[in-house]
């Protein structure tokens, strides 16, 4: 079937289409129901189906005779370790870990917080939770103690799984004081903290030792779960200071994972699939752990960077060494490689014969990075657009259905199941080529968020009320005459820093705690390497006189301490006042244009038009 026909089938009769796709996975009880909206407003798929996601990812392959096939390759240039797990070995480790969780009283529906670096225990812990029906919530290792505390209080986990620390080029991050600080800050206390002792970072905390606890456990079998039982909660930045706990189900997710591996990535049993992301992000959940394993592929867990571990040839070395068929990473990683190896000399050192396609996501793939990657690798390079909320791509090049020519700047076509429309501010459809809000007509396909953890009202207000009948993506863009989607960026207060999604509202809340700050605005400015970086404009309290440099250092330190180094706040400028509407709303969109040195028109609602010129001059003076 052509892409057009498949897309039409999925949008005109979603239940029939997805019940057919659901046959790809081994249910314990096959579903007869498709999409349903629950009374609390949450979404569900395949409500009467029963399955277990860890069974699909491991046991089903062993039962099918693939026990000796490599399931997981761990490659860590940071620790100089390489290790491979067959499906049988990974299953044994996961079952043992599941038994350990059971010994700690973890049961179906309990939450387990996972704060781990890129080591196999992260994958094992996630699958062990899935095996016994516990809901994991993985927190990215780059987040500071306060972020961890917020998640502890929201998810109220029974157990916290962690390690002695993570490694970054030229430094180690000792997690132990950080975990203790998070526990001190949080209201909710898990009943135990289990710590994996890494040889590189000494154990100092008095938490229970994971290695010992494993010895005392017996392997646990998988449990039967309802399709709608939550598999995980993953927190993501919204426009306010409090992160949103995206809830993902078991059944819809498994079907979407399996479907996307073939329809979008054209990957099948035995292929080596490498998502060079982190398990703490949605890309890591979906395409390091679940989708490749559900599909019976080999997945790569890479603890390293695109550059500096040891050089810009690292990605190509991994592709050659493990016969990677598909590489998926953020454009920022390729910009870093391009900067270090502009002529592609390191690319040509490696044999990339196995590599078919390079997929990118996390931010818009800029045409210059696309061109460099195409030129130096000679591979098909595909941009695809998605979000933590959707769990898999909304738009992309459906290689397993019908490959389309690549258009620079576009993430290609809406995938089957997604009805993408461009709406203006009153919810009317835009013409082709006209920019507007990117909205998805409901129902969303399987795999997308069910709701926000313990907050269905926030699910409604964040996504469903702006355009009734649609999911508002928070991104702006347009469709061209051929139906290609061009995503131009967030239209809310979320920014993307090196492929990491961060909330400027959250940064503003942190900066406002500083005793000298009366008010502030944080905006995203363009950055050659990271795509965007935050810039803070602060107004001092009356009567406060402080050295601008000292204040800047203090504010930067505050963001690092409360959100984490990944926020990458490097600039904070004191300004006399901020531009506001007459009703007192800060004009952030206009500020963004001023800071990015783009042309701007003075909004008619502005309180005092002179402020914009003042800020423009202050920023020019500061950068001089
Ligand atoms: N744990 C602890 N700290 C972390 C961390 C982690 N997992 N990841 C990053 N950090 C820290 C870094 O050490 C750095 O700290 P510093 O300011 O003290 O030096 C800071 O956060 C910023 O790190 P990073 O964003 O990695 O910037 P960089 O300049 O070191 O590297 C890139 C730039 C482009 C190489 C890097 O950002 C990168 O690999 N990006 C790809 C991101 C990605 O895959 N995103 C997934 C989305 S699909
Ligand atoms: P996250 O939830 O961390 O995956 O971030 C999702 C956001 O990243 C989206 O809402 C977009 O703003 C941005 N994004 C992800 N992929 C792309 C892409 N291919 N093109 C443009 N923006 C993207």
**What is the CATH class of one domain?**
Alpha Beta
Query: Looking at this structure, what is the CATH superfamily of one domain?
Result: ANL, N-terminal domain
Distance between the termini: 59 Å
What is the CATH fold-level name of one domain?
Rossmann fold
Query: What does the average pLDDT come to?
Result: 95
Under the CATH scheme, the architecture of one domain is 3-Layer(aba) Sandwich
Main sheet characteristics: 7 strands, mixed
Q: DSSP strand (E) fraction?
A: 15-25%
Given as residue ranges, the uncertain stretches (5+ residues, pLDDT < 50) are none
Descriptive key words:
5-stranded parallel β-sheet, alpha/beta, 624 residues, 32% helix, single chain, binds coenzyme A, Rossmann fold, binds adenosine monophosphate, globular, 7-stranded mixed β-sheet, 24% strand
Question: What can you tell me about this protein's structure?
Answer:
With 624 residues, the chain is α/β, with parallel strands linked by helices. Among the domains are: 56-223, Rossmann fold (3-Layer(aba) Sandwich), CATH 3.40.50.12780; 498-623, GMP Synthetase, Chain A, domain 3 (2-Layer Sandwich). It is 32% helix and 24% strand. The strands form ten sheets. The chain has a seven-stranded mixed β-sheet with strand order 5-4-17-16-18-19-20, with helices on both faces. Helix 1 crosses helix 2. The protein is globular, with a radius of gyration of 24 Å. The model has no long low-confidence stretch (mean pLDDT 95). It binds coenzyme A (COA) and adenosine monophosphate. The site of adenosine monophosphate (AMP) has 20 residues, from strand 26 and strand 27. Belongs to the ATP-dependent AMP-binding enzyme family. Residues 3-56 form the Acetyl-coenzyme A synthetase N-terminal domain. This is AMP-binding protein. InterPro entries: ACAS_N, AMP-bd_C, AMP-bd_C_sf, AMP-binding_CS, AMP-dep_synth/lig_dom, ANL_N_sf.
């Amino acid at each position: 079937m052509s892409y057009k026909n498949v897309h039409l089938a999925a949008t005109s009769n979603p239940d029939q289409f997805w019940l057919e796709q659901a046959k790809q996975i081994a249910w314990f009880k096959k579903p007869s129901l498709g999409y349903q909206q629950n009374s609390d407003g949450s979404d569900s798929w395949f409500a009467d189906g029963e399955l277990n996601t860890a069974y699909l990812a491991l046991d089903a392959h062993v039962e099918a005779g693939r026990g000796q096939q490599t399931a997981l390759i761990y490659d860590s240039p940071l620790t100089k370790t390489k290790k491979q797990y067959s499906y049988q070995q990974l299953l044994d480790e996961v079952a043992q870990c599941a038994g350990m969780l059971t010994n700690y009283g973890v049961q179906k529906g309990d939450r387990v917080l996972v704060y781990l670096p890129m080591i196999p225990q992260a994958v094992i812990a996630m699958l062990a939770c899935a095996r016994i029906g516990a809901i994991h919530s993985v927190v990215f290792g780059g987040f500071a103690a306060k972020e961890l505390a917020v998640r502890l209080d929201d998810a109220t986990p029974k157990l916290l799984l962690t390690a002695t620390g993570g490694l970054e080029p030229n430094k180690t991050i000792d997690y132990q004081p950080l975990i203790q600080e998070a526990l001190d800050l949080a209201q909710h206390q898990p009943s135990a903290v289990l710590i994996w002792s890494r040889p590189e970072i000494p154990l100092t905390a008095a938490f229970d030792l994971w290695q010992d606890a494993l010895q005392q456990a017996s392997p646990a079998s998988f449990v039967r779960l309802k399709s709608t039982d939550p598999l995980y909660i993953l927190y993501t930045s919204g426009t306010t200071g409090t992160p949103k706990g995206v809830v993902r189900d078991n059944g819809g997710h498994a079907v979407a994972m399996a479907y996307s591996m073939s329809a979008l990535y054209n990957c099948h049993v035995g292929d080596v699939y490498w998502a060079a992301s982190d398990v703490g992000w949605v890309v890591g959940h979906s395409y390091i752990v679940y989708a490749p394993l559900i599909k019976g592929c080999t997945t790569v867990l890479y603890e390293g960077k695109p550059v500096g571990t040891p050089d810009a040839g690292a990605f190509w070395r991994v592709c050659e060494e493990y016969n990677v068929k598909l590489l998926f990473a953020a454009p920022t990683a390729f910009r870093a490689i391009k900067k270090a190896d502009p002529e592609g000399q390191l690319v040509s050192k490696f044999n990339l014969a196995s590599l078919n396609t390079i997929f990118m996501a996390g931010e818009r793939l800029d045409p210059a990075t696309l061109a460099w990657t195409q030129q130096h690798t000679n591979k098909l390079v595909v941009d695809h657009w998605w979000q933590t909320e959707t769990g898999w791509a909304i738009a992309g090049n459906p290689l397993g259905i019908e490959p389309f020519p690549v258009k620079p700047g576009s993430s290609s076509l809406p995938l089957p199941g997604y009805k993408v429309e461009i709406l203006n501010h009153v919810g009317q459809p835009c013409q082709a080529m006209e920019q507007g809000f990117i909205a998805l007509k409901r129902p969303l396909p399987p795999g997308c968020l069910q709701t926000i953890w313990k907050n269905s009202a926030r699910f409604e207000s964040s996504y469903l009320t702006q355009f009734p009948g649609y999911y508002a993506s928070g991104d702006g863009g347009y469709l061209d005459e051929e139906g290609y989607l061009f995503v131009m960026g967030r239209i809310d207060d979320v920014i993307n820093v090196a492929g990491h999604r961060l909330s400027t509202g959250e940064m503003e809340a942190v900066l406002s705690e500083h005793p000298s700050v009366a008010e502030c605005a944080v905006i995203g400015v363009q950055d050659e390497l990271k795509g965007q970086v935050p810039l803070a404009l602060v107004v001092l309290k009356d009567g406060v006189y402080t050295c601008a440099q000292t204040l800047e250092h203090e504010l930067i330190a505050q963001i690092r301490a409360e959100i984490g180094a990944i926020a990458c706040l490097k600039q904070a400028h004191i300004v006399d006042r901020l531009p506001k509407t007459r009703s007192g709303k800060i004009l952030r969109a206009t500020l963004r244009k001023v800071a990015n040195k783009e042309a701007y028109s003075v909004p008619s609602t502005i309180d005092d038009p002179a402020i914009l010129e003042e800020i423009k001059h202050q920023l020019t003076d500061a950068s001089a």
